[in-house]
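writing this on my phone so excuse typos. first protein, seq and then structure
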Amino acid sequence: MILEIKPSPFMTLVAPLLRFDPVYHVLVTRSSDFFLTQYTIKATRLRLIKIRDESGTGLVTYDLGQGLRLELDLSKDLDAFMYDYLSRFGKYEGEVASILSELITKNTTFIDVGANIGYFTVLFSRLARTVYAFEPVPSIFGSLLRNISLNNLQNVRALRCAVSKEPGRVRIFESKISEGHDSTIKRSEHDGSILVDAVSLDEAVEPSAGSIVLKVDTEGSEMDVVLGAMRLIGSGRVSAIVLEWARRIYPRVTNLRDRFALYSTLGSVEVLDERRGSYKVRERHEIPDYCNLLIRVRK
């Protein structure tokens, strides 16, 4: 989950140089991460004050349509940001929701990795045959369960664990900005951590699951999720993968090349853009710094 924060004056000034990976890595990923984090923390604190002045700090219910609802606790930063975004725009990550609505049918197994409080899980539970919802952060998982129960969703399997390339235990670093920024990749915004169980999709998804659509939003560990699903993908049962791309948070320059190389071997890669619509990319440099990607898996 990426919070919408305007770029700092410094970032605007050096923007022309940032298309070069080594420059970006030195100026942003390494040197400026602390300062960008402090700027973002300040901006998000101010936004939270405004949200709570306008909407309070209690429980609210947001109507998703089709008889589906989302309960949000405005005393929690993550819920407050989500409620604010939905209230202002009427949808969240519209480009993702739009493509998922095209891909998911009554025969689909929808796998939501990084399910958060359940927005996409709930939204597409009525369209899909079965939903797997993975969320490792205990407090967020509690909100996910609450929203599944609120909507009486019988076809959803919620699992409190991380998803990685192999089963075991992983460390999740806790963000000072928002729980939605918790990640297995440590950055300046993180000041604590927890150990959680991890599974791979190859082991966690039932063999009977077919016509799989996969959505992955794991704050930087998306490639590990895909690597842990290679048997599943190789079986021909996965038709599409929607996943987050966030250039700043990858710890090494080579991560960019490795990720795009992996994704492009699986099928065609498209950038999801709410204004322009989706468009295919053949080179990694055609991808914006922050976006969601669609991989149409090659059979």
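second protein below, same order as before
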Amino acid sequence: MVVASCHFYKLFCSKCFPLCASIVEEFLIVIVSTLVPFAKLTGDLGDESRALLQFLVVENSEHLSSAIKMLDPFPSDIMFKEMHDVYTRIVNVNRRDSLEESIKHFLNAGNKNLGCRAEGLKYLRTQVLLVKTFVNLNPFHFTSYYILLPTAVLFLLLLLSLMVVVFLLFLFFVIIFWVTLVGYIMLPKVDSILKYSMKNKY
């Protein structure tokens, strides 16, 4: 029954592309997440499931890219290599490959994905283990960031304060210099004016 359904759905989808690709996009997430466990099996069911996935994800990726980027990652099995490569190429255009982005993607895709999320959970678990291993091997990489950042900010504040003090001292000496210079120039003139005033008074 499932084999016949896969075969029929492949024929149906082939008639939808490219004009009615949006109809297939609407259900692609549920279809793929449902087919992946079947595609791992041997026999006709596995063959038909893989053929349908290949048809949707690889052969028609240009028509379904907006829905493919919302899928969970494909398994690492060799039978899914082409699908995984296409998925990775489309996803990498839209987001960075990091644990934070993977979690956001998993949660966002969950709003539309009503099927099995086993592969998405496996991928997240792998990402978490990689980050955990990296932290254990490089503890300084993360702790130093939180130590060095406040130190750098404090250093910049001290440097800024020092620059302000130097500027104020410079301004003070400039003012003293100009007051002294003006006094030196104006003092003889003031003295002569006073002498002239005293002379006229008497």
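The two ends are 133 Å apart (CA to CA). thats all i got for now
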